[in-house]
Write a structure and sequence with these properties.
InterPro entries: Carb-bd-like_fold (IPR013784), Gal_mutarotase_sf_dom (IPR011013), GH-type_carb-bd (IPR014718), Polysacch_Lyase_4 (IPR051850), RG-lyase_II (IPR029413), Rhamnogal_lyase (IPR010325). The chain is mainly beta. The chain has 3 helices and 25 strands. It has 2 domains: about 210 residues, Beta-galactosidase, Chain A, domain 5 (Distorted Sandwich); about 110 residues, Immunoglobulin-like (Sandwich), CATH 2.60.40.1120. The C terminus is likely disordered.
Length: about 350
Amino acid sequence: MNLDKRYIMLKDSSGFYTYGIFDHPKGFPEFSLAEARVAFKLSSAMFHHMTVSDTMQREMPAYEDRQKGQPLAYPEAVLLTNPINPVHKGEVDDKYMYSVENKDTGVHGWISANPRVGFWIITASSEFLVGGPHKQDLTSHAGPISLSIFFSSHYTGDELSPKFGNGEPWKKVFGPVFVYLNSAPPAEKDLYAALWKDAKAQLAKEVKSWPYSFPASDDFPAADQRGTVTGSLSVRDRYVNRLDIPGNSAYVGLAPPGEVGSWQRECKGYQFWTKANADGSFSIPNVRAGEYNLFAWVPGFIGDFKHNIIIKISPGFDFSRFAQVFSLLSFSSDDILRVG
């Protein structure tokens, strides 16, 4: 496996970008990858406050607290028995407590009170992540450590760890992700809230700028080398309504061709997901050139949808007025409850 690791610093940008090009050329021997990630070990003397989401932010125990603690059922879970900060005594620390789904992995990181700085990992697009929007993975955890996970077997087993046969050609770009640093003046009373708000604002800027124009690689196509698919999705379930029902809040995505639900086990290609509007309309922009199936599911309805026609995306491709009805098999209560 060839691995090209790249780092980019832009003028007047408070941070740096990093990405990797993984290449298993034709003729290379059989190979497998268990996990790929970018990992940062921060200063334990500085960073004590971790933020993963609006509802997941707290002062964290030190790594030394874990070393002195009581191991539990598996190595990652430790009962803190004699922590440096007594407020953590009796807590269980486990890095898996701070996992999020791919769709929510936009920004997470750490804040130092002295000096007053924040360290953040920003992921502007999930197109290179594996397993679809609801695949979970690690973010930041005690150490202090921050991770950008490209792929792993966490929560799934090795089915989502890519494996390559003898001579199988494969190339994929993971990233870029943005490592962002911010700060707040002494006059700012709520340091943590201010830096978190700024980090989320920076995430919005990065998302708006995707796909980035600055990577100097033919393997990372710019916006004019990508395509768009727009359309609408309706659900047909005559036990619920005699009319077709708009696919309100449906998850709609493009993933490599496969069976219904195969996107959940897909780990070699790219995936592009969006959430449909209340009327079932959707738009999936900035899709890399290639062949895809369109997949979807609608909250509140049983089953997954797959459009059987392979959609071929080419540079500048714009597939509009795409309308599809997701027909459901209706189940009686006996069918749902029957055992054996």
